[in-house]
């Protein structure tokens, strides 16, 4: 029996209340929804936008089902994180709630292995890949990662054969399925195609340059900048064909594409809003707010993707603190007031311990800025980031660089 909506304030269950969910949670609050948010971290920054907080892991499906039923929600959504996308779809189906994805499509989207298989069947350009449990017979350079985790968890860029065994062991240990996905290294700049599908029609929105750190933080984005400085027509088409291959007819997609000398290659597709404030960049760049579109889809309301109105440039710049325990920070108010800055925030508070930059979780916050051009937006975000200072118990006070 479904959870029926009445003439009360509409209620939305959001899986996750961390940095990746901030934009959606704020948009839901601004829309006047009653927001129920769950996260295993009681200090999750997104809880400030929730009407009701549940200290429940976004991956605890039985608990989430009970929470959805107890709260009488009208929709459930998992923005910014991969695995809960399938949980949200299954919970919605269980209680006859509207949802842009079927459980089958959502489950396919969150499995890198099944996604790779489907892309291969559809002829979508992608890296060479194989699934392994041991390092025997592998060649380098390659990228080794779990097939069922997101971000940089368990990921290693391997250029030396002597590092293969440790990389495979790490990926296998982090994998839910106990295996590793090994991909041939595709050289070239990486862009992110943020799109939204409605009624089977794919609408490309922003294509941002993914400005990354060098190893050992391989793949960790330091900034997303729009518009891209590259010809992105192949990237857009690759993202479109990937979404169609996976079976996504409705809802947001976030597709990372590498622009190699041989052409665009789909590195990964996620059936969700980007976790790096991509929706907010799109709002500032094109006047289209994917957060609001995602809320429409999650609540079963008509989705009308407006025509983009590009203007100037926009970017999000991530803040990376010194290693060690954060003891003090300053300058956030000054950064928010800086020229061109739309928003700035520090996710973590004193007492948080930062390790080496290896994953997105080691970011401390962000600056969202717009400007007359891409480079102008990046420069304004950089000047604002310079105003934010972190003090660590194990390192000197450092400015963002």
As a percent range, the share of helical residues equals 25-40%
Q: Roughly what is the average pLDDT, rounded to an integer?
A: 92
Radius of gyration: 20 Å
Spans of at least 5 consecutive residues with low confidence: 1-6, 395-401
Largest sheet: 8 strands, antiparallel
Helix and strand content put the structural class at alpha+beta
* Shape call: globular
Q: How many E-type strands?
A: 20
% residues in beta strands: 25-35%
DSSP helical segment count: 11
Distance between the termini: 55 Å
Structure description:
With 401 residues, the protein is of the alpha+beta class. Helices cover 28% and strands 28% of the residues. The strands form four sheets. The chain has an eight-stranded antiparallel β-sheet. Helix 2 crosses helix 3 (83-94), helix 3 packs antiparallel against helix 4 and helix 5 packs across helix 7. The protein is globular. The relative contact order is 0.12.
